[in-house]
Amino acid sequence: MANATDHLWMHFTRMASYSAGEVPTIVRGEGAYVWDAQGRRYLDGLAGLFVVNAGHGRTELAEAAAKQAGELAYFPLWSYAHPKAVELAEKISSLTPGDLNRVFFTTGGSEAVEAAWKLARAYFKRTGQPNKYKVISRYIAYHGTSMGALSITGLPGIKSDFEPLVPGAIKVPNTNFYRAPEHGDSPEAFGRWAADEIGRAIEREGPDTVAAVFLEPVQNSGGCFPPPPGYFERVREICDAYDVLLVSDEVICSWGRLGEYFGAVRYGYQPDIITTAKGITSGYAPLGAMIASDRLMEPFLTETGMFAHGVTFGGHPVSCAVALANLEVFAREDLVGHVRANEDAFRSTLEKLYDLPIVGDVRGDGYFYGIELVKDKTTRETFDEAESERLLRGFLSTALFQAGLYCRADDRGDPVVQLAPPLIAEQQHFDEIEQILRTVLTEAWARL
Ligand SMILES: Cc1ncc(COP(=O)(O)O)c(C=O)c1O
């Protein structure tokens, strides 16, 4: 739309880049596809923003929203409940691993992360360890943009404008096996090393000052890194040894994205807290949640105890109704099982791209993949800043979009093309993704 930039301030957007051209405006979605204002169709290779897990155009989710708004549009969860929040909290608890039975609703992922850090601090204050307030996370990992969540985020480029941030957010190396600084010949030894880096950071900071470790099951930004073997098992041991909470930040990795309802289940570890959002409603309404273990709620169950935190729209009735309807679709169509049944096909279709000189690494799990682009396959040499600017920001995203594929060319770490289609995607969609990538990446290579 020509006037899109007059008043609309888009998120993480170089607004000036649209001064000469039109902002792509998406007006409709159906299944795995979306359409723009000119009627052009695109394969939604990113499920919006890792959100539309059940796919676009589900009128039953829209109807669930309308019905709830007609019945009870809004009531807060501040000392009151409404039926859909109660029902959804119970439903979520039945799907979480172990005793993660306490659901604190938010409106999105950053708020869930924020709530988790606050809970970790408040929990230790109430259990006699008031100095435990720091958090550990990985370099490059994205955990959100509110000041607490941004402090946990490990991307200097999106933080520097807002310094000083919240103190006590410590960073450890990422789990990038493709560029492993140590143990590049053994995923097991690398996993052990990367986990032990968390233990070393806790020792350096002082175990009596560290409250929590925040990790995504598959680390998204800049990479799409599945955990190396043994990584989470060792992290769990370290957290137990130092009495540090393990927060599984599953804002992307839950609700079937990795072929399970929760990423922690996929990789077989037990977190103390799960943070989630996005796919919980498949995007038909905004919702997030912090899901805590029974143990973490205990100190707040005294006569005057209270977790002094909340947001007006957390657990909005319409969003909860939509989430319940979404989970009904999941169950009826076995979307989680569909991902498990098709993930190998998705992987092997993407791996066909290895014959292109620019494709260095194809990695991921479930319906969540990153394709790392390199200048030299043998040496794994990456692009310099000018090449990245020309190739990724200047060419790739737009060219892929023009060719009919909406996905993301991300260079917040090393340059990757990220793919996370709606969970209904199947072979015909994988093939379409592969063919468009093949054409555009071939052209990108020629332009280098
Ligand atoms: C792992 C993780 N945590 C937190 C967030 C922040 O979520 P939101 O954008 O809903 O605030 C994101 C967003 O992509 C995320 O991927």
Automatic annotation (TrEMBL):
<dbReference type="InterPro" id="IPR015424">
    <property type="entry name" value="PyrdxlP-dep_Trfase"/>
</dbReference>
<dbReference type="InterPro" id="IPR015422">
    <property type="entry name" value="PyrdxlP-dep_Trfase_small"/>
</dbReference>
<dbReference type="GO" id="GO:0030170">
    <property type="term" value="F:pyridoxal phosphate binding"/>
</dbReference>
<comment type="similarity">
    <text>Belongs to the class-III pyridoxal-phosphate-dependent aminotransferase family.</text>
</comment>
<dbReference type="Pfam" id="PF00202">
    <property type="entry name" value="Aminotran_3"/>
</dbReference>
<dbReference type="GO" id="GO:0008483">
    <property type="term" value="F:transaminase activity"/>
</dbReference>
<keyword id="KW-0663">Pyridoxal phosphate</keyword>
<keyword id="KW-0808">Transferase</keyword>
<keyword id="KW-0032">Aminotransferase</keyword>
<protein>
    <submittedName>
        <fullName>Aspartate aminotransferase family protein</fullName>
    </submittedName>
</protein>
<dbReference type="InterPro" id="IPR015421">
    <property type="entry name" value="PyrdxlP-dep_Trfase_major"/>
</dbReference>
<dbReference type="InterPro" id="IPR005814">
    <property type="entry name" value="Aminotrans_3"/>
</dbReference>
